[in-house]
Amino acid sequence: MDDEQSSHDALERVPAADVKVSHADRDEVVDIIRDAAAEGRLTPEELDHRVEAALAARTLRDLAALTRDLPEQPRRAEPAVPAKDVVKIEKRIGRVEWNGTWVVPRRMEIKLTVGNAKLDFTDAIMAHDRLVIDVDLGIGGDLLLITRPGIVVTADDVIVRMGELKVRPPQQDPNHPVELRIEVTGRLRGGDLVVRYPRRLR
Description:
single chain; 5-stranded parallel sheet; 4 helices; elongated
């Protein structure tokens, strides 16, 4: 009985990055590698080596190592109009990027493991004055929020077990109306949450 309990506890202690991968996980990374090769970022030899390694990968950590030095591939989301009440983002390996003109929903649920997501609110359409973002950021799951004047972010209810929480408050103009209040809740289990202004404000 003790041996069975020890085995069960050992399974529960497996880090998220050491979770076994699926065929879909391998296929997704192979697509990323082939796109990079088509752009001239990888030599034919590197392409063959990485594809072979991706197909033989056993864990999420193995796959993440094969795309770590490749540039971020923007993926623009186009949510329906009018805004949805709830938008869910769940990503293992790779990146998700929302930028340009997109409609802000009332609530977002974001779960990341060994994957990154960026939400750029610079040109977003504010269909509501309040957005709740519930996060579950596992090991290697990083979320970046880019805001602008008129947006206020609070993350007081985020539980940090592992990872970094960094909210850079803007120098808000008291005469500028608040268009959107973003309330971030949830937990960090090894991932990072960063809130900042864009590098350059237009």
